[in-house]
Amino acid sequence: MKIEEYLDGLEYDIIQGDPKADITEVVYDSRKLSKGCLFVCIEGANFDGHSAVAEAADKGAACVVVSKDVDLAALSGVTVVKVDNTRYAMAYIAAADNGHPADKLTTIGITGTKGKTTVTYMTKGILEEAGHKVGLIGTIEVIIGDEHIPAKNTTPDSYELQSYMRKMVDAGIDTVVMEVSSQGLMLHRTQGFVFDYGIFTNIEPDHIGPNEHKDFEDYMHCKSLLFKQCKVGIVNGDDAHIDGIIEGHTCKLLTYGLNEGCDYRATDMRLTRGEGHIGVDFHVSGKVEMDVDVCTPGRFSVYNALTAVAICDGFNVTEQNVRRALKKVTVKGRIELIHISDDFTLMIDYAHNAMALKSLLGTLKEYNPHRLVSLFGCGGNRDRNRRFEMGEVSGELADFTIITSDNPRFEEPLDIMADIVTGIERTKGNYITIADRKEAIRYAITHAEPGDIIVLAGKGHEDYQEIKGVKYPMDERVLIDEILKEQG
User: Fold this and answer.
1) Which of 48, 174, 196, 294 is most buried by a 10 A CB count?
2) Do residues 295 and 279 make contact, with C-beta atoms less than 8 angstroms apart?
3) CATH H-level, domain 3-97: superfamily
4) pLDDT single digits (tens) 117-176
5) 101-328 has CATH 3.40.1190.10 classification
6) First to last CA, the chain
């Protein structure tokens, strides 16, 4: 392809050189520079690609794409393209390099503080039940047919994202559902195409700090960008910040929620509980009328399922498709029920901060368990306040807390656990400390009482424990199996 073909849809200036020159490959990592390549100069946290333009020229690059002034004398014979933002340009270049795969897919992007992962799997399940071939890109993994690729970021960088979609097209997939993080939107990872559907689940203060968003307003603004990049927006009409999310939107809007006036409304919510299982069922009214059963608990499960129903209504799915899919869809580490006894309920969840733990435990209390047992630890080399907060939340909401180790990283597990104890002792909550996570889980199982709900929080889908820079294999599902076998 020629340089100008990669730049289709972008505003740019040719500072020097020939825009019709041929390109051999696209490179955005200076360590991979090659003869004839187009080099996009990305400014990262630790390295600025603009500092490598002379090296690019030495290695025979045909073109450099920049957003800053560079030394043209060092770029003799190299075409120099200047844009406002090289990350933004990279997304368009990546789309062109991969043959604009989004044009051949129905694209569904889901943003929000909570629920993204679960809604992607629910949507994928319903659409596949209706006969669609669906790819998935998210926090846990990328799914392309039978291939499951562990995820590095919730939303991959633009080139990787476009490459995944190219593979999906080649595999005969017709629809992709993906999580769209605020960071992904802020860094323009999803530019280069327009989503067919953009989804908003909810928003709460999160991801605010020196390396993420400067404040809640910035976080909300980045979430709102999706609704300037989609054809149809489906948004949570109950969310307190919905006006900020849809401000300046350019898409057709549909709403869902529990309140009157939503296009898709959940009513008649009923908590359900069986032998070792808990769930919820409800009725959907508005643009569709159907009854829905979900095998995960609480109000947030209603919102997640309702979101998926609203998305899939655009694909003309049947009530039978929805009911069948939601009966069997599971999400690793997201209220993942592990059935080991009819006497008590055991689940694994990724809740790893006070906000998520409070939401989860508050939901589970609505089922009036004999005891609500919370098992968790906190990660090392992270905000220390999280430990006090999680300890306090568990002490207030759980009947019994088992404090254990999570990913201690370069801290001592007992020091982290001591901070959690400080938080829990602000309450009247009962607790025990067991540093070894397997032994902590063993204690929870062997001391379970009929009617208990036990939640193993914090690790979720993770299958490792990080200690002093090394990730050791540790999957809670494997630990549970080992414990059961050891008990005979």
Assistant:
1) 294
2) yes
3) MurE/MurF, N-terminal domain (3.40.1390.10)
4) 999 999 999 999 999 999 999 999 999 999 999 999 999 999 999 999 999 999 999 999
5) yes
6) 64
